[in-house]
Amino acid sequence: MKDVKLKVYLSGEIHSDWRGDLINEAERLLLPVEFLTPVITHDASDNVGVDILGVEENDFWKDHKAAKINAIRIKNGIEKSDVVIVKFGEKYRQWNAAFDAGFAAAMGKPYIVIHPKEFTHALKEVDGQAMAVAEHTDQVLKILEYLTLQE
User: In whole angstroms, what is the distance from residue 26 CA to residue 94 CA?
Assistant: First the structure.
């Protein structure tokens, strides 16, 4: 595995900087990891369809346009990855994160889930297919360290 980077797609909530923290710590540890992400600027993600393809009067079609364009990036990121990490945050329901986990599972991509203990029942099917269920990003970093051991 020398000089080979593990490609990791970071899916899930966009209301905290968990991705930046994880990436910075992986860089500090000199882990041979390349991270792939969706667009995490909320307004850019929500408005990409109307910004490029034109205004919609109905919010359904606005969201539909954005979802389709975002899906191109997400699908490509998951397909290119070796591992998918899916974080479910405290705020909001991240249906998109659950969908990404299902897509990863359908493609045979291993994925790791991060969420608080109180989400365990709601995410039991998502957790059931995961290779690991973590509560914190530091646990995920330890998994990435292990996966990239050079022996």
Answer: 25
Number of domains in the chain: 1
The tens digit of pLDDT for each residue in 15-24 reads 889 999 999 9
What token pair was written down for 56?
A: 């919609």
Asked if residue 23 is part of any domain, the answer here is: no
Domain contains 101 = yes
Q: Is pLDDT above 50 for 95? A: yes
Sheet holding 83-87, edge to edge: 33-36, 6-12, 83-87, 111-114, 132-134
Tokens encoding 40:
């995490």
pLDDT confidence of 1, banded at 50, 70, 90? very low
Sorted by sequence, the CB contacts under 8 Å of residue 30 that are 6+ apart come out as none
Which residue range(s) make up the domain with 99?
37-83+94-110+127-141
Do 31 and 4 meet the contact criterion of CB atoms below 8 Å apart?
Answer: no
| pTM, rounded to two decimals | 0.93
